[in-house]
Amino acid sequence: MLEKHYYFAYGSNMNSARMKERGLAFTDSLKGVMKGYRLAFNKKAWDHPARSYANIVYDPASLVEGVLYELTDEHQIQLMDPFEGAPRLYSRDIFSIETTKGAIHSWVYVANKATIVDGLKPDRWYLDHLLEGKSLLSPEYYQALTQVETNG
Question: Per CATH, which fold does 5-146 belong to?
Answer without folding.
Answer: Hypothetical upf0131 protein ytfp (3.10.490)
